[in-house]
Amino acid sequence: MTVKAILETALENGAKALDENQSKQILAQYGVPVIRETVARTPEEAARTARELGFPAVVKGLSSQITHKTEAGLVAVGIASADEARNAASAMLKKAGGALSGFLVQPMLRGKREFVCGMHRDPQFGPVVMFGLGGTFAEALSDTSFRLAPLTRADALEMLDEIRGRALLGAFRGERPVNRDALADTLLGLSRLAVEEPLVAEVDVNPLLADQDGNPCAVDALIIPRAPQERAGGREPVPPEAIGALFYPKSIAFVGASAQFGKWGHLLFTNVAGNGFQGDLWLVNAKGGQIARRPAYPSVLDIPGPVDLGVVTVPAESVAGLIPQFAQKGIKNMLLITSGFGETGAEGKALEEELEKQAKDAGVLILGPNTMGISNPHISLFCTGSHVHPQPGSVALVAQSGNMGTQLMAFAQKQGIGIRAFAGTGNEAMVTIEDFIEGLKADRETKAVVLYLESVKDGPRFFKNARTVGKTKPILVLKGGRTGAGQAAAASHTGAMATDGKVFSGACRQAGIVQVETPMDLLDLSAAFSSQPLPRGKRVGIVTLGGGWGVVCADLCAEAGLEVPRLPPEIVAAIDPLLPPFWSRGNPVDLVGTNRMETFLEVASILMRWEGIDALVSLGVTGRRIAIRKNSRSALAADPDVDAGFIAQIQDLVDGFEDRYVAHLMALAEEHGKPVFGVGLLSGESEKTVREVPGAKHRAVFFETPERAARALAGMARYRSFLSREEGNG
Fold first, then answer.
1. Helices and strands of the chain, counted as H and E runs
2. DSSP 443-461
3. Which residue segment(s) compose the domain that 682 sits in?
4. In which band, very low, low, confident or very high, does the pLDDT at 730 lie, cut at 50, 70 and 90?
5. What CATH code is carried by the domain that includes residue 464?
């Protein structure tokens, strides 16, 4: 029978799963290596078959009704004789009765390493392939990796290296390394099965046993069929030019404007009007009169001039009535701040869907509802409830949580990270995160895309757009809700272990998205990508003012997946004349507290010229100006004999050197095309993560701790790896 015929017959018979032998027949057709086995119908036939296959043997109950045979007592291993095979089959027959259609008899493979692989159809992203550690503790260990189908060979090979137990793929306790190509072929076969056979809901191969020679073999397998499915149509994409128009209004109407301090209708207007926006501003309030000594019009239809953007804060029940007015006035864009829609439940969702339909028919594009607003520092447009005003830059920030988004903007403002634009997407009635990703691809000013999200509306489109954009500019993602319960466990190990967060993380890695775990990491990577050149690899050189700090940084780099290579003899020889004889002669390069300032510049130059590293971390060389300032204050307060003029000279000397050192590092970054991150000895209130360097192509990036530098470099290295992989696939 063909694969399709097997699946259709099972569905017609009401089977919830194929039996193990049927499952393996299908998998074999897709290149999955399966164990040699024979179906026996009776205990006597099982005994005869076991004798023919040879001992030790395995006898299993064959059933499409019982998916977990081990738990049901339907697996007997180490069978050493025909009598044992007969007795085991008879015992299974008593336990399972009519649920059995026969018995499977297999030779017993020898191998210490058990893996699991499979496929399931994620409700958001579609078919997903899984690989991980298998055996009876597969679900408890949950050491797995996921990718969306279809897979490339590069995807499959990356999956093998992502599991925590990847050491088992190498030589292990006298057994040869696992055949990685055969494992990759297995995952690619599952991918093809998922794409070509829509009647397959789930596949579970556990264990995928590696024998003593490292050859993988599917010892047990399960396929769950599903009825034919029709994919619901996705939302109509919003054109990139429409996204761009939202951020470049020449005139704005505030519908629901208020004279009361603290209300949204006052917060938004005053934020825009009070911070340099040069376009026309119109206030709309049903009562008319004046607000802030400006005329308040009863309706948008009363406004004497054109309007590009309507910012709406009226109650939810009044919003629909604005759509005809917007259409008549020719207002194409609505920033809907108002809440009380889909986030409130079924009634609010119905109200939101009706509003979306009316707006679409009228040609009005709604951003929101329930959004915190938008900002475009390049035209001094700050239309958010929180009055934060980051400097213009190249980092585009889109957040499904307005509060999280504005907090990130506030941090960016404090740390000197320039923002291209900000949008709080709210409920995404019409403009979704997928639309923003596609729109930002076309924006030349955007160098890095930063997303805070909790869900995606269209998984396949999110993945496709992100992978496309990622080839030209990095996408950084912080996802909320990673620890949720995820989807309900299915009948297979694959479904049970595939939580939403794991599938999403796998999709991110596959699409080249740099996923982070904390808001600080998100902003640190924003600073790194927007300010420094991209590393060519993951090898890091470290120069440190103190040995212990360097050791810690080396550990942090290694734990983040970076490499800290040994210094070759020629680099040691170049540094030797600059440092005392007792220096470590290793990477990290310990400057052993030298006070000769030129040494800092010379060692940094030597390391950056070295082709053996792709990036440099400088620890403790800067920040000494703060230490000197603190020491000076204490000395002047405690010792009347201290020469204040002399202390001022020292302070000026250190200040001047640190500025020169930072400028020198940026010149090296430009000359060698390698990123340089600093970690200050101390930091002050005025110290920023990103620092402008006069005349430099790049901006300096200084972190307060070495772990932040290590994580930022690791994120950049992961993105470089994605670009290299895509170039190889191209």
1. 24, 30
2. -TT-SEEEEEES--S-HHH
3. 532-723
4. low
5. 3.40.50.261
